[in-house]
């Protein structure tokens, strides 16, 4: 059973004809060809598939597409069109917070969500903000440094 699901994706209205129970992650990757959100665990534990829905960080592998009807969804591809992404990208590069890159889109989405809520976060708030995202390369300290750099560099942006 397919339904027409309409929502705003990366600042543009879209409509997809899909089963409303199909995972948002699968619709993004298979139907809409957005490969930034990645399938890591498929259980909402790793954060590789993180997107923003109505400004809130969510694991797209856990969301049926029917749940986004009429809502705003932003993926890393949409975030790349913003000034905040530019600040985050430069900060991650400067801090060496990108190694293999698999977790990076989800980590940047988590950092964006965190900085929207706490523009000048403490280290504890940063650790909490990225806690739903797993990284096997950096040991997290460089990611924490990157978010700190972004908060300072993007002061007033979030």
From TrEMBL:
Any GO molecular function: 2 iron, 2 sulfur cluster binding
InterPro entries, A to Z: 2Fe-2S-bd, 2Fe-2S-bd_dom_sf, 2Fe-2S_ferredoxin-like_sf, 2Fe-2S_ferredoxin-type, 2Fe2S_fd_BS, Beta-grasp_dom_sf, Diverse_Oxidoreductases
2Fe-2S ferredoxin-type domain location: 3-79
Transmembrane residue ranges: none
CDD domains: fer2
Protein keywords: 2Fe-2S, Iron, Iron-sulfur, Metal-binding, Oxidoreductase
Source taxon at top rank: Bacteria
Annotated PANTHER family: OXIDOREDUCTASE WITH IRON-SULFUR SUBUNIT (PTHR44379), XANTHINE DEHYDROGENASE IRON-SULFUR-BINDING SUBUNIT XDHC-RELATED (PTHR44379:SF8)
Protein name as it appears in the record: 2Fe-2S iron-sulfur cluster binding domain-containing protein
